[in-house]
C-alpha cells in the first residue's frame, strides 16, 4: 500500500492540536489564579501590620534606600543637629511641612503649625508610631519637646496627582487599568488594615470630599499607595458603646456618608450635641468614588467598573449595616483583578497562536 502525506493534511493537524491546547491552558490559568488568591489571602493575614518587604526593620527602627542597616528613630537632638531644612512644601491647619535633607536623603519635616492643634498633631504622631506597616509612610523620627515629625519623602506627592503622574511623558507603559486598579486595591487594603488595626478599629475622618481624601495618601515612585496624614483617626469601640463623629461642624455634600449628615433638616439648627455618632462604615461609602477616580479613563477601566458595579452599589447602601466590610471589598477587588488579568493573558495566548497558523 502506498502512503502519501499532503501538505494540506499536515497544516490541518496543526490548527486542531493548537486549538485543543487552548482549553487546557485556560484550566491551568484558572487553577493558578485560585491558588494565587488563596496564597495572597493567607499572606495578608500572616503579615498583619509588619512590612514584609526586604527593607523591613524591627519596631521603632527604619531603613531608607541605600542604607545597609536599620537605625532607631531619630531623637530630638539628632533631628535638630543632622536634618537641614531646604524649603516649605505644604501648609495645613495642623502642620507646616518642609522638605529636608539628612545624610544624603531627602526627608519630610512636619512641624506643629499652631498650638491650638497640638492634640491633633500628637494624635497623628501616635497613629504613625502605632500603625507602621507596608500601608503607612515610613516614620524616621520625632520630637515631642519641639513638636516635629520626620518621615520618608515621596516626590510624586499626594495620590490626587495620579493622573498628572501617569499621563506624563515616559509613564505611558504604566497608565493602564492594571496599574490603576492595583492602586485602588492598595487603598482598599489600607482601609481594611485601619478597620482591624493593632490600635483598634479606626475611621479615616479627614475625608469630607474626594480631593481631601486623596490628599491623605502618597503615591510612591514605584506606584504604590501609602497612608500619610493620620491626624484624625478616632477609635470605634463597640463593646463600650463608643462610636465617632468626624469633627464638631456640620458636614454636607454627596461624598460623605448619609449618617454623617445632619438628620433633622433645616427646621432644627445644627448641634454637635444632638448629632448622632457613626462607625467605620462611613469609609466604605466613599470607596466607589475614590476607586472611580483612580481608575481614570484609560482603555479597560470601564470593564473594571462594570465588574465592580454590584459591589459599589452595596457600598452605597444608605443603611450602614448593609454595606460590605472592607475585607469583602478587598477580596472582591482581588478576584476581579485576577479574573480580568487571566482573561487578558488567555486572549494574548489565543492571539499569538492564531498568528502562528
What would a concise description of this structure say?
By secondary structure, the protein is of the alpha+beta class.
Overall structural class, as computed from helix and strand content, comes to: alpha+beta
- Give the proportion of residues in helices: 40-55%
Computed over alpha carbons, the radius of gyration is 25 Å
Q: What order do the strands of the largest sheet run in, or round the barrel if closed?
A: 3-4-5-7-6
The largest sheet is: 5 strands, antiparallel
Number of helices: 9
**What proportion of the residues form beta strands (DSSP E)?**
5-15%
Through-space gap between termini: 32 Å
Mean pLDDT: 87
Order of helices and strands: HEEHEEEHEEHHHEEHHH
Shape: globular
User: Based on DSSP secondary structure assignment, what is the total number of beta strands?
Assistant: 9
Poorly predicted parts: 1-7, 13-23, 25-35, 37-54
Structure, explained:
With 357 residues, this protein is α+β, with helices and mostly antiparallel strands. Helices cover 42% and strands 12% of the residues. The protein has helices at 7-47, 76-82, 118-130, 162-166, 177-195, 210-214, 281-295, 301-315, 326-356, and strands spanning 61-62, 71-72, 84-91, 95-102, 105-112, 139-143, 148-152, 217-219, 225-227. Strands 3-4-5-7-6 form a 5-stranded antiparallel sheet, sandwiched between helices. A two-stranded antiparallel sheet has the order 1-2. Strand 6 (139-143) and strand 7 (148-152) form a beta hairpin. The chain is globular.
Amino acid at each position: 500500500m502506498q502512503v502519501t502525506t499532503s501538505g494540506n493534511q499536515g497544516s490541518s493537524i496543526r490548527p486542531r492540536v493548537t486549538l485543543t491546547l487552548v482549553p487546557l491552558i485556560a484550566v491551568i490559568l484558572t487553577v493558578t489564579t485560585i491558588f494565587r488568591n488563596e496564597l495572597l489571602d493567607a499572606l495578608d493575614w500572616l503579615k498583619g501590620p509588619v512590612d514584609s518587604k526586604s527593607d523591613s526593620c524591627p519596631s521603632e527602627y527604619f531603613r531608607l534606600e541605600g542604607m545597609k542597616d536599620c537605625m532607631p528613630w531619630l531623637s530630638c537632638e539628632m533631628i535638630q543637629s543632622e536634618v537641614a531644612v531646604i524649603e516649605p512644601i505644604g501648609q495645613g491647619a495642623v502642620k507646616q511641612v518642609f522638605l529636608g535633607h539628612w545624610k544624603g536623603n531627602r526627608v519630610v519635616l512636619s512641624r506643629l503649625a499652631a498650638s491650638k492643634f497640638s492634640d491633633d498633631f500628637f494624635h497623628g504622631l501616635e497613629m504613625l508610631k502605632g500603625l507602621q506597616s507596608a500601608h503607612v509612610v515610613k516614620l524616621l523620627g520625632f520630637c515631642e519637646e519641639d513638636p516635629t515629625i520626620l518621615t520618608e519623602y515621596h516626590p510624586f506627592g499626594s495620590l490626587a496627582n495620579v493622573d498628572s503622574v501617569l499621563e506624563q511623558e515616559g509613564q505611558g507603559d504604566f497608565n493602564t487599568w492594571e496599574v490603576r486598579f492595583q492602586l485602588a486595591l492598595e487603598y482598599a487594603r489600607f482601609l481594611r488594615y485601619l478597620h482591624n488595626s493593632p490600635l483598634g478599629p479606626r475611621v479615616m475622618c479627614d475625608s469630607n470630599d474626594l480631593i481631601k481624601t486623596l490628599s491623605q495618601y502618597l503615591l510612591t515612585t514605584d506606584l504604590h499607595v501609602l497612608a500619610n496624614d493620620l491626624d484624625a483617626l478616632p477609635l470605634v469601640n463597640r463593646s463600650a458603646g463608643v462610636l465617632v463623629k468626624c469633627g464638631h461642624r456640620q458636614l454636607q455634600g454627596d461624598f460623605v456618608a448619609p449618617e454623617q449628615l445632619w438628620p433633622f433638616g433645616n427646621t432644627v439648627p445644627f448641634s454637635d450635641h444632638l448629632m448622632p455618632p457613626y462607625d467605620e462604615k462611613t469609609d466604605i461609602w466613599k470607596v466607589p468614588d475614590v476607586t472611580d477616580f483612580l481608575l481614570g479613563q484609560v482603555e479597560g477601566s470601564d470593564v473594571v467598573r462594570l465588574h465592580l458595579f454590584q459591589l459599589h452599589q452595596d457600598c452605597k447602601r444608605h443603611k450602614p449595616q448593609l454595606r460590605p466590610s472592607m475585607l469583602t471589598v478587598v477580596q472582591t477587588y482581588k478576584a476581579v483583578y485576577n479574573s480580568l488579568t487571566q482573561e487578558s493573558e488567555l486572549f494574548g495566548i489565543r492571539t499569538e497562536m492564531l498568528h502562528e497558523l
